[in-house]
Write a structure and sequence with these properties.
Length: 340
């Protein structure tokens, strides 16, 4: 039996609660020509997934979408054998098919993983789409330069921690925005940011101003809302901003928070770009991996994962991630990882 989580409520509420998801079961599928059956090991939980659910992207009754790391059980794909590890999109399910005719977002291309290149869990983090997202937004779009002041919101999260380190390696002065003090300490002491301020502080806006005495040249946006409003008056002329995510608005009803933020920033002379990682997969994924993987292996780029255990833990871990109760890249391990 293949257990999976699906939406129990349609339309879903603004934010998930205990009754939003339910477990269902189906027979374990058999692979057809050009397909492989895989068993999920890690389920990646990311803010964009709530947007999928809110917009009705997922078919009714289908497993909730997610990027996954899995192990091949049976293969009818040349070059892929039982026991191989893969990046795929099994979603919140114990088993799934990959290959010809299997629905998936077009840019989430399944691939065989090399455990020698890094922990297999990193294929949905620093050595996967999240790493490429940080690389595309920070390096390709914002182009930080030595002496710039770079601000990264959600700085201890799956994307933010990478984006800030990439800017630091370019010689920029990096200021993080995070929540609890332990996250701020991690960002400074472990990741090498120059400063980090807490958006939970009653003096947050003043704290950020003090941390950016010469203004802000680059802003990597993951949050929106009051965090963006604190950054807005600090932009220098000609500053660059990438909108990676707006997690504070994912429960909003209607409207386009991204357009409103973009207009407000552009009114101050900021060059703003929306970030969609799918635009960079074909052109930059291999080059990104070749550049960043050695930094991760050497410890020059550090990466924290928040790994929860067990299939039943997925909805609670997802809700924690959306409200910032995670610490690092959120994953759930639902089967043993043979590489550990």
């Amino acid at each position: 039996m293949n257990r999976y989580w699906t939406l129990a409520k349609r339309p879903p509420p603004p934010w998930p609660d205990a009754d939003t998801f339910e477990i269902r079961g189906a027979p374990i599928p058999s692979p057809g020509p050009g397909q492989a059956l895989t068993r999920t090991i890690y389920v990646s939980l990311d803010p964009y997934q709530w947007g999928y659910k809110r917009r009705g992207v997922e078919p009714e009754g289908a497993p909730c979408h997610a990027r996954t790391v899995a192990q091949v059980v049976e293969s009818r794909i040349d070059g892929l054998s039982p026991g191989d590890f893969v990046f795929c999109t099994n979603g919140w399910a114990e088993y799934g098919l990959m290959g010809e005719g299997v629905p998936r977002p077009g840019y989430m291309v399944p691939r065989k993983l090399d455990p020698a290149q890094g922990r297999i869990s990193q294929a949905v983090g620093v050595l996967g789409m999240l790493g490429l997202t940080a690389y595309a937004g920070m390096i390709l779009q914002c182009d930080p330069r030595a002496g710039d002041t770079v601000v990264v919101s959600a700085a201890s999260g799956g994307v933010g921690q990478i984006a800030g380190q990439l800017a630091r390696m370019r010689g920029a002065r990096v200021v993080g925005i995070a929540g609890h003090p332990d996250k701020c300490r991690y960002v400074v002491e472990e990741l090498g940011f120059n400063a980090c301020v807490s958006h939970l502080s009653p003096t947050f806006a003043d704290d950020l101003t003090a941390a950016c005495p010469t203004g802000v040249d680059v802003y990597f946006e993951n949050v929106g809302g009051p965090v963006f409003q604190a950054v807005l008056p600090l932009f220098n002329p000609g500053a660059r901003m990438t909108i990676c995510g707006l997690i504070s608005h994912y429960g909003d009803e209607g409207g386009d928070a991204g357009a409103a933020e973009r207009a407000a920033a552009e009114a101050r002379g900021v060059h703003v770009q929306n970030l969609f990682v799918g635009n960079y997969v074909e052109s930059h994924h291999d080059a990104f991996l070749a550049e960043v993987a050695p930094w991760v292996a050497s410890g020059e780029v550090r990466y924290r994962e928040d790994i929860r255990e067990g299939f039943e833990a997925i909805p609670a871990a997802f809700a924690d991630m959306l409200k910032g109760a995670n610490f690092g890249k959120t994953l759930v391990r639902i089967a043993p990882d043979p590489t550990l």
